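Please, structure for the following, as tokens.
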Amino acid sequence: GSKPGGGGKGSSSATMIPAWTLEGGVEMPTLALNTVGLSVEDTTRAMTLAVPLGFSHVDFHPGKERDGVAAYLRSNPAARDGLFLNTKIRKPPPGTSPADA
């Protein structure tokens, strides 16, 4: 399905963002704010601009972008419940099995 404004709480945008319906009826937006390569400050600023416009899915890396997401959430703790936070994990060394995780 689709939800106006990506389904984020308090969204004032009428933009339709496509979403996947997950188990339990939760709708996860298929469009995410990608913060790859942004500084801590730019990641925080991007979220400050995007979340009120209806972005509720944020894709970030386990580095400075993560720190920018954390800074945004410290300044906007009420926003956390309405966000899908998606990150990467580091590739394991060769020969590592899923059981080693």
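Residues 2-89 form one domain. The chain has one domain: 2-89.
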